[in-house]
Amino acid sequence: MSVMSPSRSRSSLSARRRAQGYGLAVVGSALLVMVLEPLRGTFNLATDVLVFLVLVVGVSLVGGLGPSLLAAVASAGALNFWFTDPVHSLVIHDSNNVIALFGFVVVSVMVSGVVDVAARRQQAAAAAAGLEAGNRLRTALLAAVGHDLRTPLATAKAVVSGLRSADVEISEEDRAELLESADGALDRLTSLVDNLLDLSRLQSGAMPVRVRYVALDDVAARALDEVGVEPLAVLLEIPEDLPYVLADAGLLERVIANLVSNAQRFSPPGRPPTLAAGLVDERIELRVIDHGPGIPEADRDRVFVPFQRLGDTSPGSGVGLGLALCRGLLEAMGGSLTPAVTPGGGLTMIVALPARGAEHGAEREAAG
């Protein structure tokens, strides 16, 4: 556990903020003198003091304690030299003016201190909130990943141990079934690790994104091949003359595969999900439509938070990284992912990405 040094605590504001505060203290004092000095016969000293006090508070908010103290000293000197009799002199004849200026300095220092303490408390609260959020994320990660790592590992371990055992006779059919179980478990484990690594790269800005104009139906076809979709398991409604979409083909393929897998998992028998695309306001919208239970409106934002499964604990449901990763990948490509209600019940995930332009739709035929 690290301990913040006093010097670091005193300089919690950035150097740029402090420099702006010092500049405002000097320039602000000079500007107020230029504005108020011609009006010396109109305003009394109390009014001038209040105006300069506002400057001190503003400097404190911008640059912290140091610049506000400079503003207080500069303002007191300006008030003394230009606004107390005799003017243009540091001598003060009227004792009331001495008290007024002294009170101004005391109040300025007190206000600066209060503002600085409030700013530090706000920063400390924000840091504590960030730490708490990080702790919650780590706890969720350990809880979710711990279970989902153990399950496929335990399956693969049990299969390998069974196959190696000399005490059990296993038929070729049973052997093939066990190997298929182990292969599926290792696939789930690989997918989980890949999602974790990609989500980490996205959050750190290290995910390489190479966007170019690609044909959406080609990307969708590759995504369905990756998922292993059987004929008629997904209905395709993607026009052949659809304009090119601006995206990273590999990342978009992964997004579509993930969304289709989710739609298949929740679709009732006999009602396969649908992939439908169209041009909407110079953007291509790809809709992944299912007729499952859907998501309550209050939970639609939560599904994009890592490790949120909204009660879905079915085998292979994962740790709730898929939709968070899909949205992150699309936003990195300049797109978006939005949930909507399927007419008649269910969930529609809307993928929106920039289109090349309707006038270029015909060039696909020429390229093909």
Describe the structure.
The chain has about 375 residues and is α+β, with helices and mostly antiparallel strands. It has three domains: about 5-130, no CATH class; about 145-205, Helix Hairpins (Orthogonal Bundle); about 210-365, 2-Layer Sandwich (Heat Shock Protein 90), CATH 3.30.565. About 60% of the residues lie in helices and about 10% in strands. It has helices spanning about 5-10, 15-35, 45-65, 65-85, 95-165, 170-205, 215-225, 250-265, 320-330, 365; strands at about 210-215, 235, 245, 275-280, 285-290, 335-340, 345-355. The chain has a five-stranded mixed beta sheet, with helices on one face. The protein starts with 5 loop residues before the first helix and ends with a helix.
Key descriptive features of the protein:
Heat Shock Protein 90, disordered C terminus, single chain, Helix Hairpins, 10 helices, 368 residues, five-stranded mixed β-sheet, alpha+beta, two-stranded antiparallel ribbon, 3 domains, disordered N terminus
Poorly predicted runs are 1-11, 310-319, 358-368
Indicate the overall shape. elongated
Largest sheet: 5 strands, mixed
- Name the CATH architecture of the largest domain: 2-Layer Sandwich
Mean pLDDT reading:
79
Q: What string, H for helix and E for strand, traces the elements in order?
A: HHHHHHEHEEHEEHEEH
**Portion of residues within helices:** 55-70%
CATH superfamily of the largest domain: Histidine kinase-like ATPase, C-terminal domain
Straight-line distance between termini: 62 Å
